[in-house]
């Protein structure tokens, strides 16, 4: 046996030891999709033929003939658990360089297996900037998704839908949205944004990014989507307020506003002093009769969308003296009348 033949035999034996089935030459060339392995075409990386669970692809169309292949790397695992939360798409949390990453197993905290979510020529990825958004009724909202797709596909369209269904229409073409939405999903871009203005309670639902390609079976809807909640403002305070009490007025919402806004307060249509506003609450410490009036709160920057007015009424600590006198006169009058009737008998 020649030295070259011996080397080839050793290489094949080494490959058999690694994969048990997949043999041939590990190539630095990019994946080719589709590729033929045994009697089946593959349009994405696969673990077929391997016993170690690692993903691979062929670097020529016919693996059976050329036996050239490469590893694809470990895929993302969704959802994955990191630092107390479940993530359904790649995230930048925990990094200082703003690069997207994912875990390769469910429990990152335990296994510490991860990879960057770089644009891989063989993989699909649809992720959202935020999965939960809470906005003020009457204001605006913007949702964003980013995506990558296998290089063997041609993207046809990216758009937003409000139902996790392949048959759901593009929201920009739905009559109830048509005059209120702006969409930026340019062809060949890698992101898609949806803006709704003004927002109302009818818009509360989940929204999804959908990508269509030249292969119908390769279309994708980004899972889990963006859940939109819409809130009104309401002033709340203790029901009974007496002169001298420490009273705090709170601008209440039904969900936590995503923008973490600051609030402004008005009394009888005029702004209140800033020194009275602490942690977005209006504090009247202590409250006096001069504080009686109609109060509203609003999100700073959305002054035209205030809460309904709340009428603050201050109760007296003691009964009014005039009321005491009148009650005394009435009691004395009744007693005197009874005395006269007794003597007449």
From TrEMBL:
Gene3D superfamilies: Fibronectin, type II, collagen-binding (2.10.10.10), Immunoglobulins (2.60.40.10)
Keyword Signal: yes
Keywords: Disulfide bond, Immunoglobulin domain, Membrane, Repeat, Signal, Transmembrane, Transmembrane helix
Domain Ig-like: 121-222, 223-299
SMART domains membership: FN2 (SM00059), IG (SM00409), IGc2 (SM00408)
Signal peptide residues on this chain, from the entry's feature table: 1-28
Disulfide bonds: 31-57, 45-72, 76-102, 90-117
InterPro entries found in the cross-reference section: FN_type2_dom, FN_type2_sf, Ig-like_dom, Ig-like_dom_sf, Ig-like_fold, Ig_sub, Ig_sub2, Ig_V-set
Transmembrane residue ranges: 322-344
Superkingdom of source: Eukaryota
PROSITE patterns linked: FN2_1 (PS00023), FN2_2 (PS51092), IG_LIKE (PS50835)
Pfam family, one: ig
Limits of the Fibronectin type-II domain: 26-74, 71-119
Name of protein: Uncharacterized protein
């Amino acid at each position: 046996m020649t030295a070259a033949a011996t080397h080839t035999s050793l290489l094949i034996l080494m490959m058999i030891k690694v994969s048990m089935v997949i043999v041939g030459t590990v190539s630095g060339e990019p994946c080719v999709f589709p590729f033929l392995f045994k009697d089946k075409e593959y349009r994405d990386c696969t673990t077929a033929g391997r016993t170690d669970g690692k993903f691979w692809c062929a670097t020529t169309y016919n693996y059976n003939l050329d036996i050239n292949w490469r590893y694809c790397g470990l895929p993302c695992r969704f959802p994955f658990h990191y630092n107390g939360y479940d993530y359904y798409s790649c995230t930048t949390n925990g990094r200082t360089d703003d690069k997207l990453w994912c875990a390769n197993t469910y429990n990152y905290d335990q296994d510490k297996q991860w990879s960057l979510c770089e644009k891989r020529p063989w993989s699909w990825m649809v992720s959202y900037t935020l999965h939960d958004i809470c906005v003020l009724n009457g204001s605006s909202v913007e949702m964003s998704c980013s995506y990558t797709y296998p290089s063997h596909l041609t993207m046809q369209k990216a758009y937003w839908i409000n139902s996790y269904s392949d048959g759901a229409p593009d929201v920009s073409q739905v009559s109830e949205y048509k005059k209120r939405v702006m969409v930026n999903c340019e062809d060949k871009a890698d992101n898609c944004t949806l803006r709704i203005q003004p927002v109302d309670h009818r818009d509360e639902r989940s929204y999804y990014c959908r990508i269509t390609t030249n292969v119908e079976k390769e279309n994708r809807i980004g899972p889990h989507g963006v859940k939109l909640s819409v809130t009104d403002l309401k002033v709340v305070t203790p029901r009974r307020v007496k002169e001298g009490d420490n009273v705090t007025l709170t601008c209440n919402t039904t969900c936590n506003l995503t923008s973490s806004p600051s609030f402004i307060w008005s009394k009888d249509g005029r702004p209140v002093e800033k020194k009275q506003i602490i942690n977005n609450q209006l504090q009247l410490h202590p409250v006096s009769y001069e504080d009686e009036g109609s109060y509203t709160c609003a999100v700073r920057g959305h002054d035209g969308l205030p809460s309904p007015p709340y009428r603050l009424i201050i109760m007296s600590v003691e009964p009014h003296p005039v009321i005491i006198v009148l009650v005394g006169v009435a009691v004395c009058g009744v007693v005197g009348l009874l005395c006269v009737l007794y003597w007449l008998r």
